[in-house]
## 1
Amino acid sequence: MESLERQEHGSSAQPARRPRVRRNVTASIAEDICSERYPSGSILPRENDLCAIYGVSRTVIRESLKVLESKGLVRGKPRIGTTVCDKDDWNILDQDVLEWMGPYIAQFDILGSILEARRTIEPAAAEYAAERATAQEIADLDNAWRQMRDSSDDPEGFTEADVTFHKVLLSASHNQVFRRLSSAMHAGLKYALHASNVAAHSRDEAIIVHGELVEALRLRNRTAARDCAHRMLDLAARDLAVERRLEDGRRIKPETSKSAAADR
Amino acid sequence: MESLERQEHGSSAQPARRPRVRRNVTASIAEDICSERYPSGSILPRENDLCAIYGVSRTVIRESLKVLESKGLVRGKPRIGTTVCDKDDWNILDQDVLEWMGPYIAQFDILGSILEARRTIEPAAAEYAAERATAQEIADLDNAWRQMRDSSDDPEGFTEADVTFHKVLLSASHNQVFRRLSSAMHAGLKYALHASNVAAHSRDEAIIVHGELVEALRLRNRTAARDCAHRMLDLAARDLAVERRLEDGRRIKPETSKSAAADR
DNA sequence: GGCTTTTAAATCATCATACAATAAAGTTGC
DNA sequence: GCAACTTTATTGTATGATGATTTAAAAGCC
């Protein structure tokens, strides 16, 4: 409202190319929701006002709102308006939603949930992968592992390789539910630990364990694979804990850990 | 259901009330995709033709397609048309998608994946629930359990109570990822075993185990809770296996278990 | 004749406007 | 003062036009 002007439509002078705006508008609105500019429970501006705010026609605004509605972020009722849903209703397993939450994800305290889920799921996935992984998948894992090893002093590349490793691992479980969850795990990995904060020796340990997991898959050793996955996630948990300590130190207010669930 | 002539648009004579059509149109298109009327890889009719087919304006068609696209069912490109995505790209964790797949879900061979996922996730969820469940949640579980017990000879009601039981259980884990997965588990429960096919003694066993789980949660006994969840899912797995045998017996052609993935 | 470039056509993407349906708020009648 | 009616604002849907983009045909060049 106050300082809006989101897109490049600034001065109405230039013809203002508008190819494929909808995706961007959807993301813009979603981001404004995630950033609490439109907090949960509030109703966002009328569609006509949204047209002015985002500089597009009502068609685009509507299509965007319908997409957001289909992912549980908002809920439109005739004559009333479009209200922002409670965060519990959001489809946080949806890849788009996770991307939109992106930087704000830390404020939704779902990183802990994601890590817990990973600790539950990835060992099982590793076990299934030990049974079912194809030679190609094992090769892909090996490649990802090599890339991790070769970029042990490049946090960016390391994280990227780590992400693909876990993506391929979940895929190699040949379980469609686990496969679909990889986007959530991805977000957990990507945003949980801003790569730079993870100590180098932590990366070294991770490389060792990841390598052992690949070897276990080659040998079709289910229990070893499960064990490696467990250890990998212990490392991740430790890093997240470190991260949290840093975070808590940065902002003064200490936060009781579990009281957030009762706020509704 | 199958042959219904999608809407009431048949003869153009009557005024044809059209409030809130979009949701229905979206579901109709989705169903036509799930039923393979528009198989994966094919491109569906032009938007203008879709207007005629479903008897609505292009606005509605577009909004519907955008929603479907946002859930990974289709993918539209300019000039090309809207192509049906491969099933691997579908958001099978999305509640709407699962509902649309509904009766056809058995053909997507994801029931096995869902059961596997449940066996992985629900024991962990039970363990967390033993720590974190509120008194209210335990009471809700108890209610669901009583309803299961009281409708032990009413397959419909039994399944319904079973579904809510597992929904509440996942919710009581206070893990947002698990909570979100309950829709998938729901579909797994609802369609995996057409209630009537499950033998009565199977239900009796289930009632016992569910009751023990509630008790374990009351006592905050994590290992007992996990154990009960395991046993519950062993029962479910057995029922699904029975179901599969029946299914395989019904249609003559015997099917090698894993070859279905290669049919596309 | 074969290859490259240009032009054209088809279809999606967006816009603008209009009408219908709906539910809140205001108004009138008693 | 309350109930029924009317007004009005906003979303839902319909319609047609324009712009953008890619496939494909047509034209030009060697």
## 2
Amino acid sequence: MPSPVSVRDTTQAWEALFSAQVTIMRRLQRHPAFKRLTMREYDVLVTLGKCPNGGIRLGTLNENVLLSQPSLSRMVDRLEAKGYISRCGDPQDQRAVLLSLTDEGRRIQREIGREHVRHIHELIGPGLEVEEFAELTRLTRKLSESVQSRN
Amino acid sequence: MPSPVSVRDTTQAWEALFSAQVTIMRRLQRHPAFKRLTMREYDVLVTLGKCPNGGIRLGTLNENVLLSQPSLSRMVDRLEAKGYISRCGDPQDQRAVLLSLTDEGRRIQREIGREHVRHIHELIGPGLEVEEFAELTRLTRKLSESVQSRN
DNA sequence: CGCTCTTATATGCAAAAGCATATAAATGCT
DNA sequence: AGCATTTATATGCTTTTGCATATAAGAGCG
């Protein structure tokens, strides 16, 4: 039995989602906080901040970032050089590298995060009602999970 | 009277939206159709295809794309060199340049588009119900409009 | 009208991204 | 155990991106 969802339904939704993302992102990126670190770099620090102690593999991190693996590897070089991230070999698997935030990295992530979060709220807060934000969160999470489950 | 929407509501929604976009985009980009043109380039052709005859200014186009103005200018160079876009000076305003698709540009856009749309449907179609897609479309459009209205 | 100010796009140059491939460790098979 | 295969990350090299600024045309104002 085919899905009752039409090609048009999905395409419209994807275009609307994508274009909202572009619109919002363009504004957020302009914030002075992102003179210190690009949004992508900030995003990497946030992801590292979320999966606490022990660190995370480069490949895993890569799934959450829109960057090729080599580019991410080099971004990690730079963030390491700045002292925000540390690489350490995984004792379980000598091929792998475990990444984690340094204290300094955590500090700057939080600093930028504070301003960023305020900016997001200012920018999109007036756009939807509370229940609508909740529904948007629910739908986009459901979508992510569905896509991720289908490898 | 402050907005009843909390910082948490907006931040969660933005993170979920952003991360869905990353997840979906990573998959879509892998499609062989995007060996011919990057997704950004394709997106530019789509935008040009939508605002029909007479052309569109580079600056206007730039609002729909996550690229700096100089980078877009150079992407247009490349697409022009490939014969997909034509630049022509605006007679009303000699500073401006009007961009439009060539026939060849329209052709390739449609060719890639056909496959792309099919891929989108396969990828996200099973993730939500029809009404949920409709609601997602509505919410993300509403959000875009709200953000755009606030210059 | 002449001059400053703004707006639209382009260019020089350095930084970052991607592609192909290298390296190096784990895994699997015989 | 030995060798091919797969997996995880890094590196060489080219292309694309961004930042700062140049160019060039419209606008506003004395």
